[in-house]
Amino acid sequence: MPTVPTSFVPQVAPSGGGESAQFVAPGIATAENLGAQQQVQLGRAMTQAGDVAFRIGSSIQDALDEAAAKEADVATLTQFNQMSAQYLSTAGKDAETQYQATLDQMSQVGASALDGLQTETQRKMFAPVLARNMASFQSRMLGHRNSAIKEYNVKEGFARGEQYADAAVVAYANKDAINPYTGQPYGRAEFDVNVGVALNSVRAAAAEMGIPADSAQARDMERKVYDKVATGVMGDLLRQNKYTEAQAFLDEMAGSEAIDPKVNDQLRSTLDANRERVTIEELTQSIRVNGV
Fold first, then answer.
1. What is the dihedral of CA 97, 99, 101, 105, to 10 degrees?
2. How far apart are CA 97 and CA 252, in angstroms?
3. Do 21 and 10 contact (CB within 8 A), yes or no?
């Protein structure tokens, strides 16, 4: 019977040597637990997804807040423009009396718009814009107020000056009036007071116009007051044929250089013409009556 060579047969050698080979079982790796790692990765993914959702939500809320603030801004600007346009159409004293009232109305509109916003973020976005707009409108309205009041004061000063100049003319006609209680004359004092008020009124108008008190323009304004008074008084005296008194009054006014030299010459010419006319009339009447 044929035999198999021993070199083809696996040999098992005992431990410690010998002819038999030693067999060793292959190593077995421990199974890895992936559950915890998967939970960590899942948690990280969920956190990232939450962050994205939060950012999207914040972006949407920011857009809503900005839209609400812009809407409030447009609404208040519309009302501000209407109220401002109405105020800028005022003139004179109305610009003074309506200035603060208009500002109060604008403040109420702004406060109402601010209170109407839903979130603190919206109010914080809108508040500085509202303050800026209020300051802009107030500055423009203040400029109009100052300009209108200046124009009003100038016109009022000249008008008041003319009124008191007329009052001085009336007072001069009663210059010899006596106070029944004190027995003292008061007519001339009243004349001087009215002239003084008229002068102060035109001086105030000159100051509003920025004209210095010691300037030629200011003196010319004062001279016009004296011219008006002198012309009025002379007219009254000439109508009453009080030529001597008219001459004395004109000499007094001309001597103080209060009236314009041209006005002085005109009044003197009028005085001489009236005196000559009356003299001729008196001579004619005398000839008719007495033959002389």
1. 160
2. 45
3. yes
28-77 pLDDT, tens per residue? 555 555 555 655 555 555 555 444 443 544 555 566 677 888 888 888 99
Question: Are the C-beta atoms of residues 80 and 137 closer than 8 Å to each other?
Answer: yes
With the C-alpha atoms ordered 101, 103, 105, 107, is the resulting torsion angle positive or negative? Answer: negative
Cα separation, 211 vs 196, whole angstroms:
19
Please state, in angstroms and rounded to a whole number, the distance separating the CA atoms of residues 289 and 281.
12
Rounded CA-CA distance 104/131 in Å is 14
**CA distance linking residue 20 with residue 17, whole number of Å:** 8
Helix 216-239, helix 120-173: angle, nearest 10: 40
Per DSSP, 7 falls in state: G
Instruction: Report, in angstroms and rounded to the nearest whole number, the Rg of the chain calculated over CA atoms.
Output: 54
Question: With contact defined as beta carbons under 8 Å apart, do 268 and 250 qualify?
Answer: yes
In a 3-state reduction of DSSP, which class is residue 171?
helix
Residue 175: its H or E element = none
Whether 167 and 194 have beta carbons less than 8 Å apart is answered as yes
Neighbours of 54 (CB within 10 A): 10
pTM listed for this prediction: 0.61
Q: Hey, what are 100's tokens?
A: 């603060």
- Per-residue pLDDT tens for 235-261? 998 888 888 888 888 888 877 678 888
